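Subject: Interface between my chains keeps coming out wrong

I've been trying for a while to get a sensible model of this assembly. When I model each chain on its own everything looks fine, but I need the whole thing in one frame so I can look at the contacts. Pasting all components below, labels as-is. Any help appreciated, I'm running out of ideas.
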Amino acid sequence: MNQIKSIPRREVKKPKPPLKCAVVISSTRLTPNMQRVVLGGPDVAGFTPDRAGANLKICVPPAALTPNAFRASLSDNSAAKILRTFTVQSSDPVRGTLTVDFALHEPVGHAPAGDWARTAKPGDFLGYRGPSDKKMTNFTAGTYILHADMTALPAIGAILADMPRTAAGHAFIEITHKDDVQNLDAPEGIKINWLVHPDPSKPSTQAIQAIKALSLPDSLQVAVIGEHTVVADLRDYFLKQVGLDPLQNYISPYWKIGLKEDEHQILKKSERD
Ligand SMILES: Cc1cc2nc3c(=O)[nH]c(=O)nc-3n(C[C@H](O)[C@H](O)[C@H](O)COP(=O)(O)OP(=O)(O)OC[C@H]3O[C@@H](n4cnc5c(N)ncnc54)[C@H](O)[C@@H]3O)c2cc1C
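Reply #2:
Try treating it as a single job with all components included. I did that and got this:
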């Protein structure tokens, strides 16, 4: 039986595959706080199909570098790199493209990936490595509870699309503005609750309260992804109080208020050790 990648997770580290170069095919403001960037080019053309929901490491290019100089820097281990983790929203093996949705956040000028996406235009480029495997593929429960914020919308969208159509339950998705709602391919029995949290740089407890107010069935799986504090609270609830198996559920903090991704990775590692 497949196990869902969750925390805690201890794996033997494999050597990292090389960074490749992707070119922006299109960049559109999907909703007020989400930028959809379609990536292509020769390196992406061989992309493995059907990996919606998988992780992708991106390497944000320094402003001054030409495409050729940037491409050369990707294989230069001594060159400093800005690496961030994103999700494959969808991939198109026929066109040779992959799509990434970037949640935009304030203030502008302090977040390399978000700032890059905000102004991305056709012909721009970035480095990437991946994708990983899909995160949740083993659906065994009758009822599901899901939580995501805007950074986890692509991942939760893929999980909802992959679920058996007979699945029932609740999804609580936190968005920055009411117009950030997206059409998701979800089973009819999953009730999607959109929660507006206008300032993601401030903590939010509404998803925690809504989820803890639910009565829980015997056969339950959860996916909880988003800001660290919310995910940590719900991780304690589901794993320690409810007693769910961490290997059969996907619970993963994607970012933390006040921390850059590198700092957040260090915190996550210290929590696992
Ligand atoms: C497995 C995984 C998959 C992910 N997939 C996606 C994805 O598909 N789309 C996506 O948008 N994000 C995704 N994220 C989250 C993304 O990696 C982080 O938001 C990351 O910090 C963005 O990098 P940055 O350079 O914009 O900001 P950083 O330089 O990392 O951070 C700068 C500042 O911005 C703050 N910040 C970061 N993200 C947000 C936010 N969303 N709202 C408010 N403040 C924020 C930080 O707390 C920090 O203070 C994913 C993370 C993981 C671990």
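Reply #3:
Confirming on my end. The mean pLDDT is 92.
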